[in-house]
Amino acid sequence: MKKINKKSFKKISPSILSADFSKLGSEIKEIENAGADLIHCDIMDGHFVPNISYGPYIVSVVNKITTLPLDVHLMIDNADKYIQDFYKAGADYISIHYENNIHLHRIIKQIKDSGIKAGVALNPATTISVLNDILSICDFVLIMSVNPGFGGQKFIAETLQKIIELRRIIDGFGYKCLIEVDGGINQDNIKMVSDAGADIIVAGASIFSQKNKAESLINK
Q1: Of these residues, 37, 71, 139, 182, which one is catalytic?
Q2: How confident is residue 7, by pLDDT bands cut at 50, 70 and 90?
Q3: What does R_g of the chain's alpha carbons equal in angstroms?
Q4: Please, which residues have CB within 8 angstroms of residue 154's CB and are 6 or more apart in sequence?
Q5: Domain spans of the chain?
Q6: Cα separation of 98 and 50, whole Å?
Q7: Which of 165, 178, 186, 213 has an alpha carbon 20 to 30 Å from 203's alpha carbon atom?
Q8: 182 is catalytic
Q9: Is 42 among the residues known to form the active site?
Q10: CB neighbours (10 Å) of residue 154?
């Protein structure tokens, strides 16, 4: 299988939300062999977002399949109650949403105290100014470039400026915080997103809908 060409981006985190769960093991091994850096796990509860996906058990199964770090995105209410469950399941990164977690400092500390990387996710309509008092302690920020809840949506172009501005702030203050971008990313826009300042790029449908998953991640 052809290896992923990473000239135009840093790290790729394929989202298994778009994988064929009837052959999840082989799907994960295929993207792992192709050169993926992380495995993105979208956790949805049908409350914060209008969809239900899976929980800690599936994350634990994925952890047994792959040696790659697990990038767990909690699109759920009461995320603080489930941090330990996902930690025990094998999460290496956990992101929670600004929009429904009012005690962000406490939850980020809870995640970091578990020895894993903590991130804050922002919906497309949420301004990055809400991160002013917390950016210094985040390991990463997840910029949503679609409204969360469903795979296969179209990239919202206006979020590109948000990535650029966040990159400027992080670099300006010298924060050790990565930028992750998730939603509607494909061969046509992946370089643009990377050039704007993304460190980790999540892609789901544009990878798993392709017969050759390695080729689907290449942006020439």
Answers
A1: 182
A2: very low
A3: 16
A4: 146, 184
A5: 11-216
A6: 17
A7: 165
A8: yes
A9: yes
A10: 11
